[in-house]
Amino acid sequence: MSEIRNTPIFAVPANPASNVAPLPGALNYRSPPSNIEAEQALLGAILVNNDCYHQLSGFLEALHFYDPVHARIYEAISKLVQRGLLASPVTLKNYFERDEGLAEIGGTQYLARLAGSATTIINAEYYGRIIQDLAVRRGLIKLGEDVVNRSYDAPIEVSAASQIEEAESHLFNMAERGRYEGGLQPFRTAITQSIDVAAKAYERDGGLSGLATKFIDLDRLMGGMHNSDLIILAGRPSMGKTALATNIAFNAAKELMIEKSLSQTQNPENARAGVVAFFSLEMSSEQLATRILSEQSGITSEKIRRGQIDDAEFRRLVTVSQELQDLPLYIDDTGALQISALTARARRIKRLQGLRLIVVDYLQLVRGSSSSMENRVQEISSITQGLKAMAKELNVPVLALSQLSRQVEQREDKRPQLSDLRESGSIEQDADVVMFVFREEYYVQKAEPREDKPEYAKWVEEMEKVHGLAEIIIGKQRHGPTGTIRLAFRSELTKFDNLAKEGY
């Protein structure tokens, strides 16, 4: 097989013990990793039996071939086979009669020699894997060279951190392109995965197949937060979106801390349970931490910030902070984060710590990967698609907060609907779950009349009915029912909680 092509110009000499002295200052040249023989064997096998192509088309592309002539031959074969035509040395002849690269190695007779030298078609897929793997290695070399060159010649306004994120993004994109998984899979594989999910739900307390929010009625309606799901939590300002997202993130992190503690006892070698990543593009990490301290200590965040606490409250605050310092909750408060950078950071924490939940607060503050977007609707569409792709790639639920349009305020019934999602219909389209947080108390309180007015007594009565209540409206759910659940809301602590049923 190796006689078909000439030896590469940078190949290692057959006799390493040659007496010829190297030139002064000569460099030890290394050719990029490649396997010309594997490429020849693969092309020959396809030309003998076109059915081989269907085993390879799911992962092998023309750009994976090292020899550009081989790449053009594979591309021509692809076009013929995809059109339902025969790809053989005879049918390919018209494509390459004037190909200068092929002419240098024997012209169209080279195609006949490829087919004539094919030894077996059984190993065609194995050859394809080798070719793809070597292409990935060459890509790594190119990426390394690019990183070096950009580091030397980087503009002064480009920070080192952004270069790291860009390199990491390219590296992971390369890893995704180089994966062997994906494509069509037999139904047997899919149904086995489904049974595994059902078995975990059966074994878990409460029968949840996803990560619990710890809000009983919400978990019952959703079955927990499922891996690879994009969950949109939307609401108007002051409804408590960030508070609810913080509560869910804290509850999930606490559950993971308990899970890790149990696994350390039962299986110390595999004790890592994962973490929650909270991307806060609106609030600082200190503000979020203050909220959590307030919720868990029962001391209002206003008193904590102003230092208006007594000795007993301060001791309680210290005790709670000590209990929570090992909470597996990671906060990134970088503002105006690009979706590509957000994904790269999520991948990093997935690799280093394990990842079980991502929270993004909030969607409209994320920037698209490209600055060439024609309008805001296109940018939001690219962001939601990026969040959904990230959820599937990392196999974790992504909880993203979203603003609602002002048309909610113009209706008599202020309860939000799917059509109220701001700036893009792609939010509804890409999301697996869309839920709204609604507090009627907010609107009733704004309509407070003067005490001397006759309608004041009616207003007080109405306030008593809605005080401390919140509604979570499930407007869309791909794998479950829609509906409304009610939660308790303590505004002074910005904390949601399960609502006690009547008679309890």
Q: Judging by the overall fold, what is the CATH architecture of the largest domain?
A: 3-Layer(aba) Sandwich
Give the integer mean of the pLDDT values: 79
Estimated structural class: alpha/beta
What is the overall silhouette?
Answer: elongated
Radius of gyration: 30 Å
| Name of the level-1 CATH class of the largest domain | Alpha Beta
Low-confidence runs of at least 5 consecutive residues: 1-20
- Specify the biggest β-sheet: 9 strands, mixed
CATH superfamily of the largest domain: P-loop containing nucleotide triphosphate hydrolases
End-to-end distance, in Å? Answer: 82 Å
Q: How many beta-strand segments?
A: 9
The fold-level CATH name of the largest domain is Rossmann fold
Strand coverage percent: 5-15%
Number of domains: 2
Textual characterization of the structure:
- This protein is an alpha/beta fold.
- It has two domains: 36-177, DNAb Helicase, Chain A (Orthogonal Bundle), CATH 1.10.860.10; 210-498, Rossmann fold, CATH 3.40.50.
- It has helices at residues 36-48, 51-56, 68-82, 89-96, 100-103, 109-116, 124-153, 160-177, 187-203, 216-222, 241-266, 285-297, 301-306, 311-324, 339-353, 376-394, 426-430, 440-446, 456-466; strands at 230-235, 275-280, 329-332, 355-361, 398-403, 433-438, 469-477, 483-490, 495-498.
- It has a nine-stranded mixed β-sheet with strand order 3-2-4-5-1-6-7-8-9, with helices on both faces.
- Strand 4 (355-361), helix 16 (376-394) and strand 5 form a beta-alpha-beta unit.
- Helix 7 (124-153) packs antiparallel against helix 8 (160-177).
- It is elongated and about 100 Å long.
